[in-house]
Amino acid sequence: MVKLSTESGCWNTYSDYAHGSKGSAVLMATLGQPEPTIYKGHNMVVKNLIWEFGLPDPNPYHVEWQVLLDAIHQDKPHNEARRAGEADVAVLMGRMATHTGQYITWDQALNSDYQFVKDIDTMTFDSPAPIHANSDGIYSAPQPGITKEC
What we know:
alpha+beta
């Protein structure tokens, strides 16, 4: 499943994976054929397969567009703002957890006053960059357990 690009030598995939304390899952193997599967443990091999979606899984992007088009054709309200906002909070939770090494709750993320970029609302195209590389051109990486962001 891991593919290296012959051009860049980098991992080249468009997949979604989930890992938890009791197992792992492939949420989407490829954009065209999601093929979700669940495994016991983190070794995603056939002998550890617990569940797989048995039917051709519809492309989620096609389904999303179809729902929108159906709402337009049927003159029904369609608003993705709440789902999009909640998805953004989930992303922020992941970043907070990854950068700090801490368990972050939904409420902690919503109530945090941390600014990922200080005073971003006053920045202009002429403002200096909010982070800077060191003398070797390297940007500092988050240090879980040391970094405090929330």
